[in-house]
UniProtKB/TrEMBL annotation, chain A:
A molecular function (GO) term: magnesium ion binding
Cofactor list: thiamine diphosphate
Source species: Streptomyces glaucescens
A UniProt-annotated Pfam family: E1_dh
Protein name, as recorded: Branched-chain alpha keto acid dehydrogenase E1 alpha subunit
TrEMBL record, chain B:
Domain Transketolase-like pyrimidine-binding: 6-181
EC number(s) stated in the UniProt entry for this protein: 1.2.4.1
Statement: the UniProt record of this protein carries the keyword Oxidoreductase: yes
Alphabetical keyword list: Oxidoreductase, Pyruvate, Thiamine pyrophosphate
Protein name: Pyruvate dehydrogenase E1 component subunit beta
Cofactor: thiamine diphosphate
Alphabetized SMART domains for the sequence: Transket_pyr
One Pfam family here: Transketolase_C
């Protein structure tokens, strides 16, 4: 048996981060860069909750009120609570699968709250926080994970498209939708979410090409959570993802994805560009998937605990809490009230899932075509006759 | 390795291991095939033992995976690529259909394409959408591709060996819901040809023809029918392109009735092809029209409806009754 190992020749995480992310600073160590130490990382709140100045992006959050800050905090807490409840429901067998957003709350709430109602969102399958910002009832998200439908909401109801499981596909839909907005002469914008892994798909590259060529008002919001199931980001790219935009002819920026203020500011900037007819932007939210890829995944096979611990210290929720407390923008009563609200949400989600009925059998044949189809009609009739044969006691 | 009972997934793992050991040109490529060992653990431990240059975690790009496998094959390698789930093969469909399938013919036979595309396929595991599809007919329609699907551990082991040794591209559909079914694997045995069907249960009253995940279902059907005094023959086709029509014909000439069972939609499916050819070949032997049992002309439904959608015992038995009623 010839056993060949090239591990030594393959760039490791830290090595490639170093070679591609510019200057290495002393505070950066181990896997993944520590936010706050990367000169290319837009950050407005340090992990300790201190507000840092940023000449370029401060203006996008300059007018933010304490109430709005508390609102962002509330969004993140409730989203995390919803997510935890869904994970628990999966463990109890109520959901077939769950893709947790744990750790990505700031990236999703920050970007989600930057949007206007008339903007349009194209998510992947993990954007529960963005859905929350769009006013999609969180229980609606659970249907496909419970296996009662393959989508489950009207995308036009909240300008929040259906979850897309095939990696990267939706970035093209987003681009096309944005092209439509431009043709209509409207000033709405589109935001497309995708992961660091998805950035390798041809569809994503093609969406970059189309959006640049047609100057489409689309913001590509890549949540680089460091992992694509078991593959670290350096299995997808040798340059920091945000830099990719340059080659397509539009700007890219890396934002601290655990900093809700920075995500809000940078997304507002990118949306403003889109509205002004300046075309697409790539935002790379540098964050971390704290949990497993999905409930089917076992991260212990490919990553150690130290990495997670390092990122826990940069927890997006904790960070804003520290800021709120230090600036006296929130008191104990606020946090206590939120805790109660969070409990209520958890209960509501639990009850809603348990009450979710199995779909009617004939749903198989519903909406296969908008205009109908003779074959579907025929098969539905056969199916009905077959079902009836059981009811009559003739089937067995 | 002595003869051993093992799960179907493990049998593929052992087969890949053997291929990697015996031929330095064999490569395993795909998403998460390395450290994780694939989402189904089919490639478990291979990267540890053969290194990252033989067992390659690829970027998340199916077109890229198949496209580069074509290039590697042009350079003399024998890539075995994994598509993580059936529904994710379509980004690679262009490369498979327009390039992989046609390279040999276009080069006037000068170029060989020994690429194996492994696809865990089919339903019955309660997954979300795009994780349960049976797209074999979409590939079978394309000349230049060979398509096989094992139904048990031994075939999984041996058919994988043969697929890797084949100089033609082979789409290797792995019945994911049978991954955990155990069977005897004898690595010393001499396997039959890759594209021959096998009678897995002899019978006289009717032939059930199936492949991959539905073979087990058909054996259960035959067991249930036996209790009602029906003696069904079960044929494991093993290969969808080419199809062993001689074996089906031989069986149908004996039983005079044929029901084809697959998970994929019936409309324009492999059952349609079998029905047409067998009707032509066995017109005067048939006592009943060839019947098909499979999926509906509808998107693969959400998990809570898949039992209705997939051919199960009752639906196949119903078809058996109908065929026998002629
Ligand atoms: C075309 C396609 N290939 C493979 C998969 C299987 N798959 C689902 S999620 C995933 C990893 C995605 O990683 P990333 O894009 O970084 O997003 P994340 O899940 O980390 O948010 C893979 C390989 C898929 N859904 N679609």
């Amino acid at each position: 048996m010839t056993v060949e190992s090239t591990a030594a020749r393959t760039p490791r995480r830290s090595a490639s981060t170093k070679s591609t992310a510019g200057k290495r600073t002393t505070a950066r160590k181990g896997t993944g860069a520590a936010p706050g130490t990367d000169p290319q990382l837009v950050q407005l709140l340090t992990p300790e909750g201190e507000r840092v100045k940023n000449a370029e992006y401060d203006k996008y959050v300059a007018a933010i009120t304490p109430e709005e800050l508390r609102g962002l905090y509330r969004d993140m807490v409730l989203t995390r609570r919803f997510d935890a409840e869904a994970t628990a429901l999966q463990r109890q067998g109520e959901l077939g699968l769950w893709a947790s957003l744990l750790g990505q709350e700031a990236a999703q709430i920050g970007s989600g709250r930057a949007l206007r109602d008339d903007d349009y969102v194209f998510p992947t399958y993990r954007e529960h926080g963005v859905a929350w910002c769009r006013g999609v009832d969180p229980t609606n998200l659970l249907g496909m994970f419970r296996g009662v439908n393959n989508g489950g909401w009207d995308p036009n109801g909240n300008n929040f498209h259906l979850y897309t499981i095939v990696i990267g596909s939706q970035t093209l839909h987003a681009t096309g939708y944005a092209m439509g907005i431009a043709k209509d002469g409207a000033d709405s914008a589109v935001i497309a979410y995708f992961g660091d892994g998805a950035s390798s798909q041809g569809d994503v590259a093609e969406s970059f090409t189309f959006s640049a060529v047609y100057n489409a008002p689309v913001v590509f919001f890549c949540q680089n959570n460091q992992w694509a199931i078991s593959e670290p980001t350096e299995k997808q790219t040798r340059v920091p993802l945000y830099q990719r935009a340059q080659g397509f002819g539009f700007p890219g920026v890396r934002v601290d994805g655990n900093d809700v203020l920075a995500c809000l500011a940078v997304t507002k900037w990118a949306l403003e560009r889109a509205r002004l007819g300046e075309g697409p932007t790539l935002v790379e939210a540098y964050t971390y998937r704290m949990g497993a890829h999905t409930t089917s995944d076992d991260p212990s096979r490919y990553r150690g605990d130290e990495e997670r611990l390092a990122w826990e210290a940069k927890d997006p929720i904790l960070r804003l809490r520290r800021h709120l407390e230090a600036s006296n923008h929130a008191d104990e009563a606020f946090f206590a009230e939120l805790e109660t609200e969070s409990e209520t949400l958890g209960r509501r989600v639990r009850e809603a899932v348990r009450a979710m009925p199995d779909p009617d059998h004939f749903a198989i044949f519903e909406n296969v075509y908008a205009d109908g189809h003779a074959l579907v009609d025929e098969e539905r009739a056969q199916f009905a006759a077959y079902q009836a044969s059981f009811a009559d006691g003739q089937g067995d | 390795m002595a003869a051993e009972k093992m799960a179907l997934a493990k049998a593929i793992n052992e087969s890949l291991r053997r291929a990697l050991e015996s031929d330095p040109k064999v490569l395993v490529m795909g998403e998460d095939v390395g450290k994780l060992g694939g989402v189904f653990r089919v490639t478990d431990g291979l990267q540890k033992d053969f290194g990252e240059s033989r067992v390659i975690d690829t970027p998340l790009a199916e077109s890229g995976i198949v496209g580069t496998a074509i290039g590697l094959a042009l350079r003399g390698y024998r890539p075995v690529v994994e598509i993580q789930f059936d529904g994710f093969v379509f980004p690679a469909y262009d490369q498979i259909v327009t390039q992989l399938a046609k390279m040999h013919a276009r080069s006037l036979g000068k170029v060989k394409m020994p690429v194996v595309v492994r696809i865990p396929y089919g339903g019955g595991i309660g997954a979300v959408e795009h994780h349960s599809e049976s797209p074999e007919a979409l590939f079978a329609h394309v000349a230049g591709l060979k398509i096989v699907s094992p139904s048990n551990a031994s075939d999984a082991y041996w058919m994988m060996q043969q697929a890797i040794q084949s100089d033609d591209p082979v789409i290797f559909f792995e019945p994911k819901r049978r991954y955990w079914d155990k069977g005897e694997v004898n690595p010393e045995a001499i396997p039959g040809p890759l594209h021959t069907a096998r009678v897995v249960r002899e019978g006289t009253d009717l032939t059930l023809a199936a492949y991959g995940p539905m073979v087990k279902t058909c054996l259960e059907v035959a067991g249930a029918a036996a209790e009602e005094g029906r003696n069904l023959e079960v044929l494991d086709l093993r290969s969808v392109s080419p199809i062993d029509f001689d074996a089906i014909q031989a069986s149908v000439e004996k039983t005079r009735r044929l029901v084809v069972v697959h998970e994929a939609p019936v409309f324009f499916g492999s059952g349609a092809e079998i029905a047409a050819r067998i009707t032509e070949r066995c017109f005067y032997h048939l006592e009943a029209p060839v019947l098909r049992v499979g999926g509906y002309h509808a998107p693969y439904p959400p998990a809570r409806l898949e039992e209705e959608y997939l051919p199960g015992l009752d639906r196949v038995l119903d078809a058996v009754d109908r065929a026998l009623a002629y």
